[in-house]
């Protein structure tokens, strides 16, 4: 019996709400709140067609006072934050004030600087611990499931993991010349910053998208994959002992990169405000207004995502490599919950993370990353709730 407050009614929020409603014995009462109430109401109406009712509300999650008033009114046990990374700290503050557990899928980002780091949220650890509350960070797919794959490899497959390569492939086609699969602002900030990986105790930096490999993904074949910095590298370096190297790769089509290059060259991907006809505008925010809403891509999306981790290391004195991955089909996600696979692969793990917390399978006081808990119940739930995974030996090199 638990009451859950979901904040954010975008592509991911819609999947979280629908998946929570599929698990009625855990999520007995659900509220979906966001900045634009009409979006919450539209999702609630779809859910009602399947026989479940959820409450909806309007909230500006940049404002702690509004969040506190909403939490006092609804009385949630847990708040799932799937708004934007800018709201993480205000929502954590409200959770502390109201005695509510917290979960998100993306690290806090200051609006005026792209950082992708956990420092601000890790700084809340003592306050959550003292309040007897739990905050679970990054319960999406990457970060999220990829961290759980690492914990699983450490528990079941290796005595020591030496290297991890996280590989995120979207081989889908939405039919638009250029669109992003989740919030364009966050997505473009992530891709246009310098690449970075960790090796032998040091962070090594490259220019944006400078390093590329072609990786042969199961079910979709070889794809160009570019090295990016991604936030889970920071927590995994801390929590996987003996690690020598960790990198993150993501696929982009030539068409996507061509558009991004031109937009970058003309200054449209910048987060520095510019003056335009007496108004100050942030070019990237304006670009977001022009691009398709990620949730709207779902209806015509075809193809698959393949996201997973390649490990090398030692088992009983022998060198070994393994690959753990999930394949998710855009059109099947649409049939099930009206979403594309990028929203689905984020929303399902958010629901599962919440379920782990509410059923007591994952408990702790303070602020935690996913790899700090027993991976087994989470891995079982992935198979049960729509994201089945495969473990296989790996024979190639990256
Ligand atoms: P969308 O932009 O589609 O949705 C964001 C939602 O948050 C919108 O409904 C928006 O409201 C709402 N929102 C924004 N600001 C506020 C505010 N101040 N107060 C209340 N609500 C607000 O994004 P996505 O659904 O694609 O992504 C959601 C989150 O998931 C992001 O943080 C993203 O980084 C993360 N993510 C994580 C992944 C992972 O694997 N870990 C992968 C993909 C995404 P409005 O409709 O009014 O704009």
**Kindly state the mean pLDDT as a whole number?**
96
Total DSSP E strands: 18
Question: How many helix segments?
Answer: 14
- Known CATH architecture of the largest domain: 2-Layer Sandwich
Largest sheet: 9 strands, mixed
- Can you tell me the CATH superfamily of the largest domain? Dihydrodipicolinate Reductase, domain 2
Bin the helical content: 25-40%
The fold-level CATH name of the largest domain is Dihydrodipicolinate Reductase, domain 2
Structural class: alpha/beta
- How far apart are the termini? 46 Å
Strand content: 25-35%
| Bound chemical compounds | NADPH dihydro-nicotinamide-adenine-dinucleotide phosphate
Low-confidence stretches: none
The level 1 CATH classification of the largest domain is Alpha Beta
Rg is: 20 Å
Number of domains as seen in the coordinates: 2
Instruction: State the shape.
Output: globular
